[in-house]
Design goal:
Blueprint lengths: L3 H11 L1 H4 L6 H5 L4 H10 L2 E6 L3 E6 L2 H8 L5 E2 L25 H9 L5 H20 L6 E3 H18 L6 H11 L6 H25 L8 H6 L1 H4 L4 H32 L1 H9 L4 H12 L4 E6 L3 E3 L2 E3 L4 E5 H4 L35 H17 L2 E5 L4 E2 L8 E3 L1 E6 L1
Parallel strand pairs: 2-8
Antiparallel strand pairs: 1-2, 3-5, 4-12, 5-8, 6-7, 9-12, 10-11
Helix pairs in contact: 7-8, 7-17, 8-9, 8-13, 9-13, 10-13, 13-15, 13-17, 15-17
Length: about 400
Amino acid sequence: MGNGNETLARQSIFDPEACGINLVDREIFRTDDYLDYFRYLRANRPIYQQRRPDTGRFWNITRYQDVVAAEGMHQVLSSSGSIVFENFYHDFPVKMFIASDPPRHTQCRAALVPLFSTQNLKGLEKLARERVSAILDDLPRSEPFDWVQRVSKELTSRMLATLLGIDQEERHQLVRWSDLITFNGFSPIEQEAMRQQELMGCLEYFSALLRRRRDQSTTDMVSSLCGGEIGRGMPPSEILGNLLLLIIAGNDTTRNSISGSVLALSQHPDQWSDLVAAPELIPNMVSETIRWQTPLAYMRRTAIVDTSLEGEIIRAGDKVLLWYASANQDDTVFENPERFDLHRANARRHVAYGHGIHRCLGARLAEIQVAVLWEELLARSLKIDVLTEPTRIPSSFVRGFSEMWVRLRSA
């Protein structure tokens, strides 16, 4: 039996303060080693203030109940300014409506709500099925290929081009803009050399598109959010920010959920067998995938007045990170949370899409894309073998994959 000193030593390995770990270090997310630190914090210091010379001071909220509570405190924990900790934009500031509070947030969100009506989603589901079928039928059988490039990015970029109202031939530019912003596959030197030129190109492209549509009655996302009454007087930095928000929200999160579903079922072969035997499990599998993967690890808020949470005093001006990736692994809510379980009764309780006024507008469309993909895979009796450890994106914000080599074969 170990003594108290041994127990303390084991605990200190995962105590961020004792071991000097930076909780927004991209490396612990690239290597998928972050879970141990958040497990320790949920049990011992659920509202934890990190103080480091390289990051400054910020609060980490790691338990499910506290994340949900904080999401409902938008009057005191503001989204204005930024919803990320990493500085994606450096000296090229942009303004996104997700990084705003009511009433501006409410106005922008209301402009997009009609695009995700039940009727529109039915049409988008039909379109997604057509595109999934075309993609799957074009994939090689029994030969290695990169699932991220050939399927995850391809499906989401095709759907996003439709939502934004641009030609399918130009969809790959959307992926490039998204990757550049979220640090997928570019070195820091490349990022800085390309950033302003690429982002200005993005703004010019969509500004020209908006000018062409000024006198047209269109219902795409770009026109709805940046055109018409709501777009009148919107400065270029806000137009660009909202465009990038639409691109990233419609691209990164869904494609990483698609890739995450493949990895999850590969790592849990018993769940794959259950899915083949009972395809009616697909809707719950999708929810469980999004819980298990959690494509965005956190959202940042900033305290605008002094407030308290679970006895901790958060001062005005303090940064607060709401860790979705930790809340979705909280074993007081999700039994055996690190296991991927198609039968999990409360999988839909995940907070991967946020909670309250900031819950993701496109959540249902993301679920539809993942579900349709698996419906078509099972209909074709196809099995996906993951051949190597996937390459993860080096980011503490976006939890996803830049490469995943697989082989497709008959089940």
